Amino acid sequence: MTWDWGAVADFLPYFGKGLVVTLEALALGSLISFGLGLVWTLLMRAPTRWVRWPVGVFTEFVRDTPLLVQLFFLFYVLPEAGVTLSPLTTGVLGLGLHYSTYTMQVYRAGIEAVPAGQWEAATALSLPVRRTWTAVVLPQAVRRVVPPLGNYVIAMLKDTPMLMTIGVLEMLGRARLVSQQHFQFTEPLTVIGIAFVVVSYLASLLLRTLERRLVR
């Protein structure tokens, strides 16, 4: 097998566009998953089961079905109900919704790890519920949830190639397109594989740095 550096050079502009789309989907999907995950967690702590039960059923259903099926549902079924989204918007929403059911479990574990004495102290000081959460519980829980949340960010990065199935030209989509046009598969796919390794490694370094700062 010979390595064609000219093919690599020709592919790099397409790779750059695919990298931007991949990082955009990852960033927006992560924000959605973090926000929705916290919402699910708080709803599951509601005093009435008529709130907890629907949320529990929905999140369990999402967690137990493949991401690819969910992407197809959002992209092909929602338009029949009058809701049409762009491929990238659909992909971001699918990633965020799917992973929010996992970040929900991370938040739950982090909140439950806050010592009972902290809750009791907030009650003894007659702190309002909102103040208890924002000043006592969440600051302590955040320190515990950063490492597992970071793991899900990296897992989400590895799942971004699934967006290719609904027409999003992220890194793998670009590589596949170029490979089919030029009948050269080795160089584009190798570059994509290396890119995923590099991005995952840089993300892990960033998360470890954030974790060390939060522990201080």
From TrEMBL:
PROSITE patterns: ABC_TM1 (PS50928). CDD domains: TM_PBP2 (cd06261). SUPFAM superfamilies: MetI-like. Pfam families: BPD_transp_1. This is Ectoine/hydroxyectoine ABC transporter permease subunit EhuD. Keywords: Amino-acid transport, Cell membrane, Membrane, Transmembrane, Transmembrane helix, Transport. The chain crosses the membrane at residues 20-43, 189-207. It comes from the Bacteria. It is found in: Cell membrane. InterPro entries: AA_ABC_transptr_permease_3TM, ArtM/GltK/GlnP/TcyL/YhdX-like, Ectoine_EhuD, MetI-like, MetI-like_sf. It is a multi-pass membrane protein. Residues 19-207 form the ABC transmembrane type-1 domain. Belongs to the binding-protein-dependent transport system permease family.
